[in-house]
Structures are given as C-alpha cells and as structure tokens.
Amino acid sequence: MDIKQVMGNRRSIRYFEPDKPVEREKIQYMLEAMNRSSRAVNADFVKTIVVFRDELDAEVLEQLKTPTTTAEIDMAPVHMFCYLDLAYTEGAQGRLKELVQLGALNASHGWSEAYVDEVVWATVLKPIASDPSILAYIGAIDAGVAINQGMLAAVDAGLGVCLHAFNTEVAKTALGVPDHWLPLHLLLVGYPAEDPLTGGQRPRRPLSTQCFVGNASTPWEEIPEVTEQLKKDGLIQDPVDAEKRRAEVKALAQRFGLPE
Amino acid sequence: MRRWFESARLDDDPAEIQAHKLALLADFCDHTGQNPGELVSGLLRTTKDGHTAIAAKKRITMNNTIEEFVEKSGFTGKDAVVNGNIIRGFLVHNGIFIQGRAWREGSGGSPAPS
After folding, report:
1. For A73, A115, B3, B73, which has the most beta carbons within 10 A of its beta carbon?
2. Which of A138, A192, A165, A169 lies closest to A20, judged by CA?
3. Residue A18: its chain B contacts at CB < 8 A?
4. A50 SS3 class
5. CB pair distance less than 8 Å for B100 and A255
6. In whole angstroms, what is the distance from residue A36 CA to residue B106 CA?
7. Mind listing the pLDDT tens digit for each residue in A31-65?
8. What are the DSSP E strand ranges found in chain A?
C-alpha cells in the first residue's frame, strides 16, 4: 500500500475480531518497522512484550483484566506492551563510535572518534542520564516514533491497532518487567471487527492552527493543489459520518454484548 | 436513568427491550440495596483539589458485584455478558469508566474478571 494511503487509513480500532488469530509474521513486520525507526544515539528505546492473548497463562490473563481493560483484552488477540528502557544511555558511546566508523556520523558535521571517546559522555550522555525528567522525555519522543512505525506497518498489513493505557503495576508483576522499564502504551492489535476505516477520518484542525513558518505567529498557508492531491492519494479522507458510525457501534455492541 | 436513556438513545429501542433494561437495573438495585443515584455516586470521589474522580477500588468491587448478580440471576453464556453490560451501560452513561467482558462467539465468553 502506498505510504500516503497507509497514513490516511490509520484509525484507532476499538473492536477487533476476537477469534481471528494474527499471524506471527505480521507481528514481526511491526516489530522490525519499530526497530528501523529514527533514534538518538542509536539506542533501543522501546522494549516490547508481545502477548498472544490465547497463549497466555489463564491466571496471568485474568490478572491483566481490570475494570478499564477487560473488554479490550477479550477482543484484541495480540497485546504489545511497550516500555521505555531508561538504561538507553548505556553503551551509547560504543554505538556512536560505530556510527562514526560507518560514516553515518562524520567530520562534516563535527563528529569524530576522539569526540565520542573523550567528550560525549561528560557533556551529552551524563547530563541526560543523571536527570530523570530529561531521560524520560528524550526517550519518550524516540519511543513514540518507533511505536508509530509499528502502527503504520500494522495498517499496511491489514491489521487494526489502538494505543491504550494499561494497569502498569499488574503488568509489571505478571510479565516480569524490570524496574528500569518505564511503561508507555499498550498497543492492541488484531483484525478489525469494525469497518477498518470506521466510516471516515477523525476531525483534525487545519494546518494553520498548528504549523507556522518563519516564526511562531505566522500560520502555514496551505497550498490548495497539494491538499487536493493528498485527498486523491488517500492521506486526507472524508470525515466520519456520525450517524453511520453510531449505527455501526450499536451493531458491534450487540454482537459483543457490550454497553450501547 | 433519564441520563442513561438519553445518552444511549435507548428511547429508540422497542418497548420490551427498554422494559427489560429498566427491570434489570431495578433488580440490581435490590441486589445491592442502593438506588441508581447511589450506585453512581458510590463510585465517585472528590480529590484534594476538589475535582471528581473514579473510586478505583470501589469500581473493582462494583465489577465483581455485577458478576455476582448476573450469576445469581441465572444468566449464562451471552446472556450473562449482555446483562452484566446493561448494568455497566447505566454506569458508563452516568460518567463511570468501566468495562466488563466481551462476548466471543464459540468460546463461551471469557471467565469473569477477577
């Protein structure tokens, strides 16, 4: 699928085919897409625990169910628990040196093995590692980039995905999560039981309200021809038809016995 | 109850379905000894800075109470899931974020939440 169509088709899917298994091959595609994301200091920010719901120990599965997660766990066949590894600065010097040796980081931009060996730890990595808030926010940005690539890969593979909060304490115990993994998101994965396009895109505000040019007070002016082309390419799609969606949700709620 | 019916657009449902939902809620109120308003208010708390929040532990208890009620009422299979979630629907449309089981065809539904 064209990348514009993939990005345009992505929706938060909340009703999954509970008994249609997700192929491990597709999960690996998602994981590899995450693994190929842009990342500072070439670190593996995200640690992902893939849980195939029906392969999980029944007792552990029950522990993961809470009054805010039960329906999702029942419906989504795959749960990807995403964590930020707060130890991401460990080994960073070695990885940076490798990038210098490979020419990804180069002298044109000021990089050298000497800089990595003698300066980087004290002036870049140590200040990050020693401030928990900086450590978390820098890591969360790159983790988000990776998770998004996994989501887009899922859409490309015909799957539905939805980011969800989860009971972090229960998951920590049930899944044996180390102390230095910071909980980020639960990524629910499965084949959509709802229309994968859910009747249209969610409302978005115009670019001019959030994008600026030259300074923070000059709004970006859209080029109408580009907007039209992006509509033709599938990135921009018609908004959701609320009445149609309401009817779909009612039918889904009745199918799964959920509140209407 | 008015809020529930309006928010969920239950007024459009056939009369017998509306009656079933109301009767089920009435039975649940009998089971708990609380009226509908008390069911909702008992799941809310006020934070130190005056905001309204969900009482998380009481919500767990409520989910278990709903499952007990469903079992005591003799509902099984999809009926058990549906009727438990009718009660949850009343709570949801009154501002309580709560989830119960989803019915899975062929599996007999998942076990009750612990």
Report:
1. A73
2. A192
3. 102, 104, 107
4. strand
5. no
6. 39
7. 999 999 999 999 999 999 999 999 988 888 888 88
8. 46-52, 78-85, 160-164, 181-190
pTM: 0.91
CA distance B16 to chain A (A): 16
For residue A123, pLDDT beyond 60: yes
Q: Is B52 on the interface with A (CB under 8 A)?
A: no
Contact criterion met (CB below 8 Å) for A39 and A45 = yes
Residue A209, amino acid: T
Cβ–Cβ < 8 Å for B73, B19? no
Q: Which two tokens stand for residue B79?
A: 């009926």
Cα distance from A253 to chain B (closest Cα, Å)? Answer: 9
Give the residue-averaged pLDDT of B17-22. Answer: 96
DSSP 3-state assignment of A157? coil
Q: Are the CB atoms for B104 and A72 separated by under 8 Å?
A: no
Helix (H) or strand (E) holding B53: strand B52-54
